[in-house]
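Weekly modeling sync, notes
Attendees: S.R. (lead), two postdocs, one rotation student

Agenda item 3: backlog of single-chain predictions. S.R. asked that every request posted to the team notebook include the full sequence so nobody has to chase files. The rotation student volunteered to paste the first one in as an example of the format we agreed on. Action items at the bottom.

Example entry:
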Amino acid sequence: MDESENSNFLQDTLMGSTLHLLIRVYERLLRFGAQRPKPIQDSAVCLAGEVNAPWRLGAGGWIVLGQGLVERGSRAVLRSWLGFELAIELKQSHASPEAAELCYLLSKPHIKSLLSVHDSVAQKAYDPELPPLPDNICDEEEDSVKIVRLVKKEQPLAFVRVLFHYDPEDDPAIPCKLAGLAFKRGDVLEIVCQEDELWWQARHHGTNSQAGLIPSRELQERRVTLQKPEALFRPQRSLRHGPEDADYGAITGIHIAGLRKSFRLSRQNSESRQSRWRKFKRLHPGPIPTYLEVVPYHRGPADPHRLVLMFGPSGVGLSELKRRLLLSDPELFSVTIPHTSRKRRRQEKEGVEYHFVSRHTFEKDILNHKFIEYGEHGGNYYGTSLESVQKVLAECKVCLLDVEPQTVEKLYTREFKPYVVFVKPPPIERLRLSRRKTKVISSTDERTQTKTLMEEDFEDMIASGQAMESQYGHLVEEVIVNDDLAVAFTELRSGLRRIEQEIQWIPADWAQD
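Predicted structure, as returned to the notebook:
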């Protein structure tokens, strides 16, 4: 068959009515299957036998049909197993053509076989059956037998982002390690069943893998309350300063100073479990991070961009990453213009480097909660206003904010739908190699003096990064390890492209009307 014959054959097939009818049948089957139909009844064979039974005129003017009585001249409606209705008119001495045709069809062997198969399927139970537990099993015995049952219930799935790492191989409490589901913080899971108090059933979203056991929210919260808090580390001594402006960069040092006090590690090994829990609750107000219910989200053409929040320890390279993003696409990325109470210098312009306001006005704005971050340095106030963030987003640009971790919690709202990036340092061995000649602005002089990073600065960077990730990691959607600046920038830029192009998972509270 040459090419022209193949083309004609394909065209005839596509234009033929048979293919169109098959497609329509296929579409009907898909629609019917999505409804999860259940059989109307499971005795089609018996019903067919009653319909085929001889009928006669009984005493009193009643029609005898099988074992049932139908009043003469009435209309009997038979609901078949296919769900359609067939009306059969019964008369005194003879059946209608429709009734005769129905009796003829029901007498055919293949119809009888079909009805028999239907009854067999309808009467069969498909739920898994497990043998009953022996009566002599005791839960407190170490060698007791534990049976794990994984059953998918007919209930809507709930999607969650997990806020902690889990490996069933390291969990001595799981009933069966082989039935466990491992995951990493940030993964999205489909919750299949939540009926058990301690163990839920879930699977990774977007995969065809079978469901596995994961700790329930209640179980995980119990475990966290009994563990010693890991969010306490030695204080950070260095200040984080950016290359843009020395006096504004010093603000972050003011905030970090308050952060250090809450990150001190108590070395008293004699602490009671109760006192450790009280300390943990002071550092972790609100619910313990376990599972966050999420929903898919894609930004519409008229919606503002998601606010990009970046945080990390001093010296990790936040300011340089932000600067490179701005240079890579100034039409897309932008930053806020900070406020200050200091006097404007000769080369500065209002609304370009800063918004210059009086000290009285600044303090009034503080009382009115207009700043998301602020501090005092060198006798002057500096801060980022909420209005400046909203202005960037109103210009249909991505607002880049380099903030302290506690500020992330303030902005973690439905209005901004922030995409939170944590920039963490590499291991200390890599820091010594990559940052040994790095200089940062010193806090002793706001304009000119710099200092070279020392060993204690590297240790502080590692400790502070671990503390931040432990306490605020549940808010993070992307973690960037800044070992090589070019590689870190590429990873960050790729992540920001994804939130513009792909469907994201956001907290369910952000999507509610």
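Discussion: group reviewed the output briefly. The radius of gyration is 35 Å.
Action items: rotation student to repeat for the remaining queue; S.R. to check formatting next week.
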